[in-house]
Amino acid sequence: MASFCIYRPSVPTHRMQSLSARTHASHLMRGSSRRPGHSSKSGVQCHGTAPTKVDAEPDSNIQKIAAQAGLGAFKKVTMVSLGCAKNTVDGEVLLGDLSRSGFDITLDEDETTDAIVINTCAFVEEAKNESIEAILKAIQMKAEGKTKKVIVTGCLGQRYNDTLAEELPEVDMVVGFENYGGLSNNLRASLDPNAPPLSPFAGTDQLTGFPTAPAPINTSRVQVGSATVPFRSEWGRYRLTPNHTAYIRVAEGCDHACTFCAIPGFRGKFRSKPWASLLEEIKYMAESGVKEFNLIAEDTNQYGMDRRDDKNLATLLREMGKIEGVEWIRILYAYPSYFTDDLIQAIAEVPQVCKYIDIPLQHISNMTLLRMNRPPRKHTEDLLNKLRDRIPGLVLRTTFISGFPGETVEEHKELVKFIRKFKFERLGDFMFSEEDGTPAAEMDDQVDYDVREARRDEIVSIQQGISERFADTCVGKEMEVIVDRIEEDEEGGMTLIGRTRDSAPDVDPIVFISDPEDPNVPPAQVGEIRKMKISGAFLFDLEAYPIA
Length: 548
What we know:
This protein is α/β, with parallel strands linked by helices and 548 residues long. The chain is 30% helix and 18% strand. It has 14 helices and 19 strands. Strands 2-1-3-4-5-6 form a six-stranded parallel beta sheet, with helices on both faces. A six-stranded parallel beta sheet has the order 7-10-11-12-13-14. Helix 9 packs parallel to helix 10 (341-349) and helix 13 (409-422) packs parallel to helix 14. The relative contact order is 0.10.
């Protein structure tokens, strides 16, 4: 069992530092150390949208039963969702269950509620600390009477369930992946022991056909089972992303044995989402207004290779291209293997597929890659060159790890030289984090923290220049831009913010959108994909205005 220490302030704070304002110390440039879809903020909920036609609408039968049982007003619950895009999907599905079970969902973490769900992350040490801070803040709110129940879900709960339950007795439930489906009924019973069990899926699952009767009430504080959990339908979500963009989980788990990574231990074995269920989910999302589909997994391009039905990522991309409403498709979290010629061709040929691939490479020195148990340099370079040769206009995003155990000055210089030469359009860098239970944490020749930090900062500084020059090459071009949101500018006005096809949500550069120069062209609106003229660049961000 993995273990870690929880630091609790001796004097409770009345208002912990706003997590939505926190940024990683390593973010010297936008998204420099985040995985795509990985938020360092509790602020995924600030993008929350009310349930739409095919999202998590409260079931009228459930409301009727609740009223007949004299339950009165529905219980109110909020969620602080941290971590990567896979955690965001988990959070959306959980909130969907709660909404259909009659809970009133609020996305304001400071509002008085009946329960707070902390959907935690355990990716690296900094993510763990942020999750603990969020839990402690919820505990303080409970002490102040602003909430009744504190529920911990996510990877930290899955991985450190016993430690959390022992050291944080104020936490009411620690729930693992296997028991997510029972959370709504168990929480309802915890808040009101006389409440009847209500299934969040009245009758039969629309996609699998399996019966969905409520599971028996589980009153245990720790409800954590297997990490390798079969897929359930994920279309009925209470969305935390803007309505026009969504993460689509095509697979879960990982079978690789990278020496620095603990994820396989708490996310389980690799398994692909069933084909029919996945397609139905995408169709439902498209019907609800989603235009951008960001495909995610631990190894997204491995999709389908664990089955024998000839359905793989190339097949999926082509099928998605036929679905009405699917306008952008983006591949995140690809592994530097599994890129068949057919997949490369599909990326190049399917017009809806953004010519953008995220491939975390971690390092380029053969000796470091050997210690990491990652593919060797020649394999990686051959793949990158093939991708750039065969996919016109390709934008590549990657991440590296600085200060891995045993990394010499020469190996670091080799990585720096490679980055300068290859010129990734998007790049982030992590300092190595010793994850307990991993071989790398026990290796000799651990690199000093200040050396890790200096090497990370050098790479980020180099990439800043590369990214700025790439942004400059976009000026004057006509590009599609998706309009994400409205933000208040420094002068108190409102500015539209968007992204080109070359940028993933949350981690990549943005576009500041101004009014059209042609009075016959309508102004841009949130949720639209519009053709725009790139009029300028500010560092690595762009400025643009609609031309059609």
